[in-house]
Fold:
Amino acid sequence: MYKNLTEYIAALEQTGELIRISAPVDPVLEIAELTDRQAKRPGGGRALLFENTGTGFPVLTNMMGSERRICMALGVERLEEIGERIEALFAEAVRPRAGWLEKLRMLPLLGEMAQWMPRDVSRKGECQQVVWRGDEVDLGRLPVLKCWPHDGGRFVTLPLVHTVDPETKIRNVGMYRMQIFDRRTTGMHWHRHKTGERHYQEYKKRGERMPVAVCVGGDPVYTYCATAPLPDGVDEYLLAGFLRRRPVELVECLTNGLRVPADCDFVIEGYVDPAEPKVVEGDFGDHTGFYSLKDLYPQFHVTCITHRRGAVWPATLVGIPPMEDAWIQLASERIFLAPIRLAVAPEIRDLWMPPAGVAHNAVVCVIEKSYPGQAFKVANALWGAGQMSFNKFLAVLSAEDATGVSGEGYLDVIRKRLHRFDPKRDALFSRGALDVLDHSAPQTGFGGKLCLDLTRKLPEEGGERPYRSEIPIEVLWDDFVAAAGLDFDELLWLATGNTDPNRDVSITPEGVLRVDARFKPSEVERGWPNVVTMSPEIIEQVDARWTDYGFAGDPLPSPSRRYLSLVRSDSAKL
Structure:
């Protein structure tokens, strides 16, 4: 794996996966517009290294924004290799052993597992080669991006936020965006479902300040692990050690006693005081393709900033899919399929989260079906399992219909099965937890769910329905959406984002599933957000500077031009 982010950048360049831009580029909006154009190229384009940001630090974007680059970041040729390793490990660990000789054969496996455990080291780390204290502490010295026109400010978008449970002392490393408020304070955007928020509440009960350390950069595997859907209490650096096949070395922070990877590029040390009132954070152009609107979150106080010499600032851009997060999500699909099969539903053969479903809105599940009602059983199991509990729309297929199929190929299988779909029999409505960022939910973080059982029906379920020439689903669109000329993936993104299954989906007396996918600003008290697009001024500026950046030929088209007709006001909120 990689000693630091610079080594990963060299590997990207050697394989033709990196574009260097030496011309001056502004971290406010300009970097984001260039990144969006690259990220939406077929296959995810290439990573971008902006060498002249006006701060002394380069910015790296889209660093894991393709299947090849996410594989490089995780040190594999195929993402499936990691899932296969996990499955083989579980199989060996639980295999019955008849005698002591068999048990002795487990020792090499236990020894290998011990090598994955993170290690505390007493020396200083590369991440502490340069130290800013006192008046030197100034977040404005960092090349933090402002990504979209109506964002509340600049946001750290790839922070590895370290906290510790005050009771158990178990570490958590999560990724929670951080809005820069001033030289020494930021927001800390952890949701009520997240481990960081649980730790915050524990410190609040104890009446104590909460130490927090935020790392940026280092081995890219750290960034992936901070996003991974691990159970609460499982150390992200154990997963990193498993992926790297060597332990993560952790050094002690200078001002709060937390431990962080020695090879990170930046460390921002500080604390959150639960006795302080929460502060307004946002708006922010989010991975849903809509703005997440202003809300109250804790405030993070910075006590010290350290960085390694030659540090590079990695950042990600989220917005209308597909973007870099779709490839990170793909890695989680492949890595965590085996644990889901082992711990949640053994009949699951595959899971696919289409990029248009922005992780939680739409999921396809393939099962080995053997008894009636099994699709609904699996749906209920998934809706109660970790981050899968945030899923809103779920389609379940039979393995016999999906042999040799993966990814986008499932859409053809779904279309064929929908011709035999009976909404009155094959749709399961439910309610439960949703992502806090789901703007269409009637209440924040709580709303409807819908499973479409597209499996082959057994006699006990009434058998297969006759083939219908028309699919029994209709979708209601706003006139401006119908006129926008969007493709299937874009319509799927809008429909699943703008819809609550219990409020907006119904079955007509004729047996048609009717989906109201219109914008509904009057339906939720917190307000309905706008679609995320770049301003026309920045689009034109980037077009005009295209050759300045070192590019030849005509400018890549701005993805935002395609969506400007969906924007309904000159703010983050309709």
